[in-house]
Amino acid sequence: MPDEPTAAMRYKEIMSRAHKAADDVREWERRRGHELESQIAEAAQRVERLAEQEIAVQERGHRWWRMAYDNVARLSWLEPGEPPAATAPARGEHLDHHVEQIKPAYRELQNAVDALSWRARR
Predict the structure, then answer these.
(1) Residues 6 or more apart in contact with residue 78 via CB below 8 angstroms
(2) Which sequence spans correspond to the domains of the chain?
(3) Which of 26, 33, 102, 105 is the most interior residue, by most CB within 10 Å?
């Protein structure tokens, strides 16, 4: 039985492993904390960029609305109403598609108003 470790040696070995495990957990927590801080910073930047993009799109939509309103305002028999409000559930990934649809729709409106105006002049 002389080859068996003593209780004191086993205790030291257990404590050494416990300290190593605690150090490993602290190091993992430190690295994970840095990863999470980095992810939070990236997400905050993305939110800021998207908020700026949202404002730009709203301003652009308002400009298109004003141009359409000015065209329709020439028609005495049509009341244009209020500008449309932003739609909260609109999907951001479809933004480019929706923006691309504005210009041809505006041109179609403009052509229709011009055609009505031409007829009214007769």
Answers:
(1) 72
(2) 7-121
(3) 102
